[in-house]
Recover the amino acids of this structure.
């Protein structure tokens, strides 16, 4: 029997449904972050916008509270980037992506030549108790490396600590309405539990499919940067349903995962600068129209987020605050031409976004730049 074929619109609706981007619904914050397998978070407040766009009655103070009580942590995981994940996922995902971080260390243009002949295991044995004694800034970490290994390159070894030890960024970094230097300590010290000794790649890939599917092998690799995922999905094949996209790629999905009618309305949504829904597929045709692919780089230059309408990227956005007047202005740069109805929908959702991000602004404005 031939595989079912899903067009880009059907694929987009399926992914948006499981991402909470077809309709905001009440949801438990921890359960949502777990389902999404974390949120990309190198820009500290990105997860707040991401969750505001997904959950009804989202309270950013609740998210901050979960970071402060260590239910959620900021840690390098997928694609060797900072993610906000549950404590359990920090201990599971961090050892799973160690090969990715080892590869990054070996390829780093500035530091890779500083490691031959260095016993990194011995260095980590010295550095671990020092960073567990107290969370360290980057400057403090480099100073400690220089103090204990004066004959070695301190910046390179500090970078190795980031890649070899499971370092979490501690609050106030990442709290709502607050900021702070990056200070790190080990996940084991911060959470009081060890890393998972043998993380189960099969269960993690199934979670990826549940949150981002239907997806191809190359999509899962883009999401994680892990290799040998073909054999993982082949092993999982009896548990999965197989589709094809319009380009003939084999796609995997859970049999009972939501796959809405392609005609299902998809409302306007503002996504942060880095949102995994747009970063977790090798082929992003489900979210970017063919006629817009060549214009995306220019549209996003100088902007800080994406605008979805009818399930696809229709522009980029930036919020500017005037310190003198405390006013806030939302700028939207469209991909292509927005008709009047689309522009009205973007303006309405944009107004809600500004009210969320700048609730203290006495005046707000929106402008569309071509």
């Amino acid at each position: 029997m031939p595989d079912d074929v899903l067009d880009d619109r059907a694929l987009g609706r399926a992914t948006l449904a499981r991402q909470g981007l077809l309709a905001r619904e009440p949801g438990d914050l921890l359960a949502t972050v777990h389902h999404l397998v974390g949120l990309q978070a190198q820009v500290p407040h990105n997860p707040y916008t991401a969750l505001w766009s997904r959950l009804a009655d989202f309270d950013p103070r609740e998210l901050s509270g979960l970071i402060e009580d260590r239910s959620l942590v900021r840690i390098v995981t997928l694609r060797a980037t900072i993610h906000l994940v549950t404590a359990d996922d920090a201990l599971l995902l961090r050892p799973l992506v160690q090969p990715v971080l080892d590869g990054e260390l070996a390829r780093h243009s500035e530091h890779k030549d500083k490691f031959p002949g260095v016993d990194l295991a011995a260095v980590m044995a010295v550095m671990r108790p020092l960073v567990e004694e107290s969370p360290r800034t980057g400057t403090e970490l480099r100073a400690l490396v220089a103090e204990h290994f004066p004959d070695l390159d301190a910046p390179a070894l500090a970078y190795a600590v980031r890649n070899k030890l499971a370092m979490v960024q501690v609050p106030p970094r990442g709290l709502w309405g607050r900021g702070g230097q990056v200070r790190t300590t080990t996940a084991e010290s911060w959470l009081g539990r060890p890393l998972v000794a043998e993380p189960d790649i099969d269960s993690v890939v199934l979670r990826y499919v549940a949150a981002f599917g239907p997806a191809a092998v190359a999509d899962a690799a883009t999401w994680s940067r892990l290799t040998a995922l073909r054999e993982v999905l082949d092993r999982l094949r009896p548990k999965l349903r197989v589709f094809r996209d319009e380009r003939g790629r084999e796609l995997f999905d859970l049999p009972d995962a939501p796959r809405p009618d392609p005609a299902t309305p998809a409302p306007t949504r503002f996504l942060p600068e880095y949102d995994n829904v747009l970063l977790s597929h090798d082929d992003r045709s489900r979210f970017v129209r063919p006629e817009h692919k060549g214009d995306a780089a220019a549209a996003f230059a100088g902007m800080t987020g994406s605008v979805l309408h009818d399930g696809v990227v229709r522009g980029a956005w930036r919020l500017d605050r005037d310190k003198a007047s405390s006013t806030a202005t939302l700028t939207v740069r469209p991909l292509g031409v927005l008709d009047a109805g689309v522009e009205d929908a973007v303006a309405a959702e944009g107004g809600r976004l500004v009210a969320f991000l700048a609730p203290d602004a006495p005046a707000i404005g929106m402008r569309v730049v071509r």
User: Anything to note?
Assistant: The radius of gyration is 22 Å.
